[in-house]
Specification:
Length: 379
């Protein structure tokens, strides 16, 4: 299983999946046959997370091949990412609380043997140890395995979900503040309060074709008790059109300038920002993947005679004028901007986010009902 850091590779991967595997997605998507047999899922998430290809591109290309009714489940899964981002945008304190809780827990569990054995894959569960190895070596896990992993981490190994979410963010190529944080909260039973996800031996056996032995889990655990209520914030995502000959900042999760809403704007220069020193430490593999994707975006810009430069986030100080920023969404890139440049930033939002986030004030079922409306507007 390869994830080459380029848009060309991502487009080939998308087209190959649509041509050969999309029609069987709904039936086979929950099976994890192992890292060498991933053709039952698209494996596009590392590229969507970094904006190399967009959710809209994926949906458009898929609908050219099949009708909506035939691939509805795939489209829903693609648009989950927009939903999670929108949900978190309306409740930003969830992210702030997660980081604060994580900081305290890291000090508490720094020398905890149960935690250290878990992150090294030295538990008595073959399946869990295998997923740890796959996570660190391949920087990817099947979605169903992520759910099993998180459930085992929380309810069998009795470890805080925040530490598990940090581990995923450190190693996953598709690590995303919204999808990752809220996904772990959902498994724990605090995203939808009182409704948790419990991994079971029979379910793992069924959907892995009995690849693992001796799966002894706590299958009767109650949800985590956390009844914190987060008020929805009234946020406005309006664009102020950039002035001609201004600069644009793009972070590592928006590397699809070629197809974005602002591709026809005339920017004097585009700065591609490398942000590696974060509160959640990134693995060397993830750092290198991001670096190569930045280089790929730079090359594509230069092929269109657009002035582009890759800079470290610390070098942003050399930009003296007010800056336009392709909105990075809640996460550590936005945290850095809010801390250091809050009065000088003009955020540019994707039109699909502006429209879709208005449907993120409730659960995904409500959002799902609006998907045909979203598709009708943008496709």
């Amino acid at each position: 299983m390869k994830f080459l850091p380029s848009r060309a590779f991502a487009i080939d991967k998308l087209n190959n999946f649509i041509d050969n595997n999309l029609s069987e997605y709904a039936k086979l998507r929950n099976f994890d046959y192992g890292p060498e047999k991933r053709d039952n899922v698209s494996c596009l998430s590392p590229y969507i997370t970094h904006g190399v290809i967009s959710e809209l591109e994926v949906v458009k290309s898929s609908l050219k091949k099949s009708s909506y009714i035939k691939i509805e489940k795939f489209i829903q899964e693609v648009l989950w990412r927009i939903y999670w981002k929108g949900w978190l945008e309306l409740r930003p304190k969830v992210w702030i609380d997660f980081l604060n809780q994580l900081k305290a827990l890291k000090e508490k569990y720094n020398n905890d043997s149960n935690y250290l054995n878990a992150i090294e894959g030295k538990t008595n569960l073959e399946c869990f140890n295998t997923w740890i190895k796959e996570l660190k070596n391949n920087n990817y896990l099947h979605n169903h395995s992520r759910m099993w992993f998180a459930s085992i981490w929380i309810f069998t190994l009795k470890l805080p979900w925040q530490l598990g979410a940090e581990l995923f963010m450190k190693h996953l190529y598709d690590g995303d503040a919204a999808s990752n944080t809220l996904g772990w909260r959902w498994v724990a039973g605090i995203q939808t309060q009182g409704k948790h996800y419990l991994a079971t031996e029979w379910n793992i056996n069924k959907f892995t074709n009995n690849r693992f032995q001796n799966i002894k889990l706590n299958e009767n655990e109650l949800p985590i008790n956390d009844y914190t209520h987060y008020q929805i914030e009234n946020k406005i995502f309006n664009n102020n059109n950039p002035k001609e000959n201004e600069s644009l900042i793009i972070f590592d999760n928006n590397l699809g300038y070629d197809e974005c809403d602002f591709a026809n704007s005339k920017f004097e220069k585009i700065y591609l920002v490398n942000h590696n020193k974060r509160e959640i430490e990134l693995s060397e593999n993830v750092i290198n993947f991001k670096k190569e994707l930045l280089k790929d975006q730079k090359q594509r810009l230069e092929n269109k005679s657009i002035n582009a430069e890759i800079i470290d986030i610390s070098e942003m100080t050399k930009i003296k004028e007010n800056i336009n920023v392709f909105y990075p969404a809640i996460g550590e890139n936005l945290d850095y901007l809010n801390k250091n440049y809050s009065n000088r930033v003009n955020f540019l939002y994707r039109s699909i986010d502006q429209f879709s986030w208005s449907f993120c004030n409730k659960g995904f079922f409500n959002f799902k009902n609006h998907i045909p409306k979203i598709i009708a507007k943008f496709i």
